[in-house]
Amino acid sequence: MEKIKRLSISDWQTIKFTFNLDQQSRMPFENYFLVDERFPTFGYYINDILSEMICTTENQETPAWSIARQYSYFNMQSDSFIKFVIDFFEKEKSLYQFFTLLNLKEYEFLDVSLIKYKSYLEHKLPSGQLTGYENIDHDILNYKTYNEDLSVYLWVLKNEYRIK
Asked: Into which CATH architecture does domain 4-161 fall?
């Protein structure tokens, strides 16, 4: 059975060594993602067995959450970890939609894996550019540009799968 848990700042050493991060990398984790009093908004989940990590941000304007690509490291060959995080948001937060920033191969994997979800293309992001939309550039891109073409997708749980 996989060991998946939600992280706090007390888990910094685990994060640092598991993902070979330097001390400078600690700042966004410490000040933004792992601050315990912000746990309702920002979360980290780790799969100890496979050394995977997903960073999430809850959107304050719309009932959705996002996966922060820059701070997430997960295997696009297995869907059990991402399904664990999605299940948490469905059951614990009643949030049934989320944003991702993906290349074509990653999108194709999730599109096959997440059969309960319908994906919508929100933005095409050419290499080295931001979208120009503050909420996307901040929440999803973290103001980072990438050296590959990516796309922002909104994933929405189909009505037939929603908890009544």
From this structure: 3-Layer(aba) Sandwich (3.40)
Q: With beta carbons less than 8 A apart as the criterion, state whether 11 and 17 touch.
A: no
Distance of CA 115 to the CA centre of its chain: 18
94: left (phi over 0), alpha (psi -120 to 50) or beta: left
Packed helices 80-93 and 104-113: angle between N→C axes, nearest 10 degrees: 60
On whether the CB atoms of residues 84 and 4 are closer than 8 A, the answer is yes
Q: Is the pLDDT reported for residue 12 higher than 80?
A: no
pTM to 2 decimals? 0.78
Backbone angles phi, psi at 46, to 5 degrees: -130, 140
Task: Give the start-to-end residue ranges of the domains of the chain.
Answer: 4-161
For 78-136, the pLDDT digits (tens) are 787 888 889 888 988 889 999 999 999 999 999 999 999 999 999 999 999 998 887 77
